[in-house]
Specification:
Elements: E1 17-34, E2 40-58, E3 69-72, E4 75-85, E5 93-101
Antiparallel strand pairs: 1-2, 2-5, 3-4, 4-5
Length: 115
């Protein structure tokens, strides 16, 4: 098998950022049963999640915000954090972290209505 080079995941769906790096992290939530001595006797995974971290350059006048929905390929994520780094000697760099779990329906944040 040939070694993979560069970003091999299709990053369509990430708009407003020129993606320089993409990290994917898969997790499982696990329940454990213990005996009377406190020793773990059983482990059962009951949920799987995925977190992505994206770093890139801001492309145009785009706002990337926490709470927004991000679609990467066929999968929807909710953006948890956004860091924006501006310097007087470089381009504006954006880093974000987004997550999904199981078959969760992702609903973006909407501000509460006044009243």
């Amino acid at each position: 098998m040939a070694r993979q080079f560069g970003i091999i995941t299709t990053t369509t769906g990430i708009t407003g950022i020129v993606v320089n790096s993409l990290t994917t992290n898969n997790t499982a939530e696990i329940a454990e049963a213990r005996n009377e001595k406190g020793q773990v006797t059983d482990l059962k995974a009951y949920s799987k999640g995925e977190t992505i971290s994206v770093t890139g350059l801001l492309d145009g006048d785009v706002t990337v915000e926490a709470g927004a929905k991000l679609t990467l390929g066929e999968k929807d994520y909710i953006i948890e954090t956004v860091d924006r780094n501006e310097t007087n000697t470089g381009y504006v760099e954006v880093s974000l972290s987004a997550r999904t779990a199981d078959a969760a329906e992702i609903d973006a944040y909407t501000a509460p209505s006044a009243g």
